[in-house]
Design a protein that fits this description.
two-stranded antiparallel sheet; 12% helix
């Protein structure tokens, strides 16, 4: 978890430095240009954290098949990008893609006093979203997003040694692809006409056998063109 705590500050520093370097190559623009014209495409490069809610229930226990039925809540780093096309200064349609890394969790057998420390699957989410922007000032905007797509779990069968010294095989998920619905909100600050930063919070419901909730705060470098 220490690596996760350091991930966001390191990411913020990297994006701010990248923004500063890019601004050095920006030609000065008139203040009126931000208000009188608008760029129709936007690319965001983001990084943050995936916060997954607990999934499963002890009632799902099956000896020899599902000995560790509950996955506790966990956080893991996530990176991704989005590409949007604006149909007006305040409305856009886009694609959001995010890759989530794995994390270590403790799984418990609800029948026997046995636990294992296992790796969660890496995951890939892709969603088509609608964006609505509300201008707060000349350079600051608040936005809402709503969309849907799918999640792909990248998991294989793995073997672990429990705290009791037993060899435990954790099977790959029965269904690797699940639909999802997502909504989000954020603040976007433009440093110039084509370069900015965005602070984003996305929440998603992933429709597995039982719904799992996902919350993803992230920081993004914004490029308009």
């Amino acid at each position: 978890m220490k690596e996760n705590k350091l991930f966001m500050p390191a990411l913020a520093l990297a994006l701010l430095l990248a923004g500063g370097q890019l601004m050095a190559y920006q030609h000065p623009a008139k203040k009126s240009s931000l208000q009188s014209s608008w760029l129709k495409r936007q690319f965001c490069l983001r990084g943050g954290l995936n916060g997954f809610g607990a999934h499963g229930a002890e009632s799902d226990y099956e000896a020899g098949k599902n000995d560790f039925p509950v996955t506790p809540a966990f956080r893991s780093p996530v990176i991704g990008f989005s590409l949007a096309t604006f149909t007006s200064p305040g409305f856009a349609l886009g694609l959001d893609v995010r890759y989530g890394f794995s994390a270590r969790v403790d799984l418990r057998d609800p029948v026997d006093p046995e636990t294992i420390t296992a790796d969660t699957p890496k995951n890939l989410t892709a969603a088509v979203a609608l964006y609505k922007y509300f201008r707060l000032s000349g350079r600051l905007q608040f936005y809402l997003s709503l969309g849907g797509g799918m999640e792909i779990l990248m998991a294989e069968e793995k073997e672990y040694i429990s705290d009791l010294g037993n060899q435990i095989v954790v099977a790959a998920p029965a269904r690797a692809v699940s639909p999802l619905a997502a909504g989000g909100a954020g603040l976007q600050a433009m440093l110039s006409r084509s370069l900015g930063l965005a602070l984003d919070l996305q929440a998603a419901a992933i429709f597995r056998k039982k719904i799992q909730m996902l919350a993803s705060p992230s920081l993004a470098l914004v490029l308009k063109f």
